[in-house]
Amino acid sequence: MNFKGKTWKYGDNVNTDEIIPARYLNTSDPKELAKHCMEDIYTSFAKCVKKGDIIVAQENFGCGSSREHAPISIKEAGVSCIIANSFARIFYRNAINIGLPILECKEAVKDADKGDILEVDLSAGTISNLTKNKFYKSSPFPKFIQDLISAGGLMKWVSKSI
Fold first, then answer.
1. Which of 13, 108, 124, 152 is most solvent-facing, going by the fewest CB within 10 Å?
2. Are 89 and 48 in contact (CB under 8 A)?
3. Over the stretch 82-112, which tens digit does the pLDDT of each residue have?
């Protein structure tokens, strides 16, 4: 799986309430959640993000509650991948379960600026910053996790496997 998109850069400890504010959790409709994705950090994120764009963040992205609404809102908003220094454990697992690719790569995060164009090869675990002509290596997921993400998440993977 390859992704290419514009970078949206965030800092440390972006929590699930900032990703999708709790006031919108009266629905689990992905399209409705996507309309409010990241709005407490960047008001017009949902209107400005383009399909394929990539979120880059520092430490502990997705900390906070265990709700899976946060990665669902990001995926439905059109984000193809998240690259961070580290992820909160529950967010990490929720992202994989809904088929949202995530990678940890401190060097790529350090060098990326908002608006840079990144290209990710999930199978190889490589990240290219096309704007700065730099290349990074991350640890690729094992094949069964790549298959799960490629299927669109755990439920879709299970449905195909039955």
1. 124
2. no
3. 999 999 999 999 999 999 999 999 999 999 9
Strand partners, 121: 2, 126
Q: What share of the chain is helix, strand, coil (3-state, %, to 5)?
A: 35, 20, 40
* 60 phi, psi to nearest 5 deg: 60, 40
DSSP element (H, E) containing 82: strand 81-84
pLDDT (tens digit per residue) in 98-152: 999 999 999 999 999 999 999 999 999 999 999 999 999 999 999 999 999 999 9
Tokens of 1: 């799986």
Residue 159, C-beta contacts closer than 8 angstroms, at least 6 positions apart: none
Among candidates 59, 79, 66, which has minimal Cα distance to 10?
Answer: 59
